[in-house]
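Predict the structure of Probable chorismate pyruvate-lyase.
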Amino acid sequence: MGIASRNSLRDWLRAPGSLSRRLARLGERFEVQVLRQGVAPFRALERLALGLPPRGLTVVREVILRVDGEPLVWARSAVHQRATTGPWRALKGLGAKPLAHLLYDDYRIHRSELQPRRLARQGHTRRHAARQWQAAVGTPLPAQMQWSRNSVFSRSGAQLRVMELFAPGLAGQRPGRPRR
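Done. Here is the predicted structure for Probable chorismate pyruvate-lyase.
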């Protein structure tokens, strides 16, 4: 995915507020397909973003967001395991509900600036997303699926990192506008 592809996803990479709510406005049916939720070791970028020590565990939730059955976003959220007994305990019971239900309805939660990022073609995150995408969707992760955005949500001193990787099917679509 080159500059032209990034430009066509620019609105999505920078769109404030809830991605789930914007996606839901594109079609008739919005779904969250939970791929995994559980405890995992820290990843370096997550550890740095969350300001965590070199060792420890996170609670990770990985999902595919679909509109009218079409997979459009692979997302991963990570929070320090201790925070799931405190400010982020509602994450445990979220199930197939969008994370937006927790993040945007609570005035105590603050979001960092969105950070667009191109994933390395052979990087760990992209390889991991590709394995999950193939298993859940039945087709390979599109080669053009390289642009993500990252942000950190803070509540009561505990932080939650969210990374969203965009499918090329969103290119050319305006966030929150119905498809033509």
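Residues 58 and 82 are 8 Å apart (CA to CA).
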